């Protein structure tokens, strides 16, 4: 981020905040039996089946006990029909239609007890109805682990269609092998298939992965008190404070320097057993600091956990304070305040700050944004010179400051929504959330991993009124990944049914890591870094329930990968609302350390995935020869194809086309921070196929009918060629159910411009690093 004039500290009148909070509460209330005012509760559609029939579909975000559709426009008068549930979607077929028939329809649905009515919708049969899509092929038996070869049947429910398939994991086309009968799967492989019918749209890709051999019997022979490798420091309260402090200082001196440590391979974790410590931990690059208690108060630091503008080369700013974390501790700060002046990829989770929290450098220089979750701060949290920030499911004594985009959800003590002056956006609750899995020691001295429960409409820290709800997994069910482990050994552990615990280190992969088992936990400490060496995708997660991935850094290799992390195969369709996959503190880097290449960093094909704090970054600086328009290439940071995906804390920067492309229905984003690529060489090389200037940072697919986002900022700094411009930062379909709130654009130091904020709305970015704001769209 590029420094801009420092903001003044703003004071707020209590009556103003109270009135705003009251208005927000009234506007967001849904009454039993009333009209559902938020289309994010559901998606609905009507599809023409033939000349005389159409199918009405309704997919609730939260599973419903019943859905009734009411419609008029047929010869029978008003009809009231209990819909039929299949695969999470309720459907009803309406017959007796002719071209031009207009159907007026609406729904009544149950949600967690109460009943709601939707607004009325209209559908005209024939003429303008888009082509019907062939149903996605399905497989019998389903993909999974089998002891012997399987005979697999592929089918589609669309009569008269043909099926084309591949068995090497590639995407099938109209020229792929024609399916004519059951196929043999003698060895481990992935089968992909599409349905094709003349006059209809080709289906999405159906996929099934088969592991042939021994069925996993569970993870065995893993110790409950494992060896966490040479880069993990474990401190005991019985150790002298001087001994602990000496180790902390040694690690910090090795990890502190922005010029030499930022792209180094050293990785460190500081783990504190339950007890009290009088120490001061300055946190450098690639360092995780965490308590080993089951709750934050089990480890008490009488001192500080600090990040600041430590180096002379920083010149008093914290714009490059990346890749460091603090988690699961209480801090009684020296002098009453703890300083955490960070930029991206520096999460602050499950912390109990018994005093004030300062998110800016001691010099009051700039910092470029961060993330807090599941935390309590008894005093004031002050952002001051922080350019943007997101706080989720936490409790604050008070808040002060704000530059461009400060966002809160489920955070008592947060300021009311006042965007753009001050630039603060607050949601009373977080729609769906789940705290991170974390390591702790039980009363018998054995290590375990705690997996918190799913929360809906959460507010406040999960442990605010006692222990965090959830379940505990013994370390005997984890394979501890350490230096010397290969992709083969890691995959063998996954096949055996193990969870993964990555210790601090850099891991080169010559094959994809395949996470195929539901509820697998992949947990890293000390920024373990995964590098694909030969163009493979670093990790693939199957379309299964409840996988949890936390604390990994994916670094693109020198041979281009199609993706670094993929969740669900193309065409995934299962509903995971009750037990979603979660990606938390998962970071991606293209270049900077090595000259990396990956077309897309993260692809999400599964439904209901929670993306909770990611930073996907194509480097704008780093080691010589590792960054630049041709040295580090990547089109897109995040591609979402799944439905009902939620992103809370989304940081994506510098990719060469759209930073985020969102094709799934029912998506939500709470907080988005973006910088367009700095290094565009000329306008012609960056224009869209349509001819418009530049690529939008956040693109919602043209066929999406429901999407909502809050608190989004996109900035440009075209320093290689300041004549470059982008037509807009956000591009979305013009649909009443595609809604954006609290958006801003900024031209940093006026190096090029963004002409509009969203679609054709919003003014051109002016000189002076001044934001252009749009409060709501449409």
From TrEMBL:
Q: Which organism is it from?
A: Kribbella ginsengisoli
Q: Which CDD domains match?
A: GH55_SacteLam55A-like
Q: Signal: is it a keyword of this entry? A: yes
Q: Which residues form the signal peptide?
A: 1-38
Pfam families hit by this protein: CBM_56, CHB_HEX_C_1
Question: What is the name of this protein?
Answer: Chitobiase/beta-hexosaminidase C-terminal domain-containing protein
Instruction: Name the SUPFAM superfamilies for this protein.
Output: Pectin lyase-like (SSF51126)
Q: Which UniProt keywords apply?
A: Signal
CBM56 domain sequence ranges? 35-125
InterPro entries for the chain: CBM56, GH29D-like_dom, Pectin_lyase_fold/virulence, SACTE_4363
Q: Which domain of life is it from?
A: Bacteria
